[in-house]
Specification:
Blueprint (H helix, E strand, L loop, with lengths): L11 H13 L10 E5 L5 E6 L30 H7 L10 E6 L3 H10 L3 E6 L6 H12 L3 E4 L17
Parallel strand pairs: 3-4, 4-5
Antiparallel strand pairs: 1-2, 1-3
Length: 167
């Protein structure tokens, strides 16, 4: 008799959002860790990124604060996860791809998403939906016919183990 397949596996949205959330764990930002994962029409990952400084900028040489004079905060220096995922893509045309991101993208990332040809944004949280940056983002994405949808996970948590015995 043949053994039946396992039933409690994660769906594609949970898998790709999980990759985005795992990517966020690379962020050095003490207050906000965001990750993004770009997927093509064949469900192949073609880019990933997290919020952090540009390559060549030492994480120890720049501020990570959220308040104060602009140059004493992280804001003029940090690349958002969505932009990094676009810039870190495997060298392919991103037209028709979708991007999974922990936070609904800001207006600057929305511009990059639109320009890159990504056609769908899948997000986990839109906690900044009332801010001007995110209102502008939504307006641009809507006008550019980029589909936006909040992921609806069937699970709340995934635990990873690096213990060899668990493999």
């Amino acid at each position: 008799m043949q053994t039946a397949k396992r039933n409690n596996y994660i769906n594609w949205d949970e898998y790709f959002m999980g990759i985005a959330l795992l990517s966020a764990k690379r962020s050095k930002d003490p207050s906000t860790q965001v990750g993004a994962c770009i997927v093509n029409e064949k469900n192949k990952i073609v880019g990933a990124g997290y919020n952090g400084l540009p390559i060549g900028c030492d994480d120890n040489d720049f501020p990570w604060g959220k308040t104060g004079d602009m140059l004493q905060t992280k804001y003029p220096f940090v690349c958002h996860a969505e932009l990094n995922a676009i810039l870190n893509n495997i060298g392919m045309d991103l037209h028709g791809c979708r991007i999974y991101t922990a936070l609904f993208p800001c207006n600057e990332c929305a511009k990059a998403i639109i320009q890159s040809g990504i056609t769908e944004v899948v997000y986990l949280s839109d906690k900044y939906h009332a801010t001007d940056s995110f209102i502008a983002s939504k307006m641009m994405l809507d006008k550019a016919s980029v589909r936006c949808r909040k992921v609806e996970p069937t699970i709340q948590k995934i635990e990873l183990s690096f213990n060899e015995a668990d493999v």
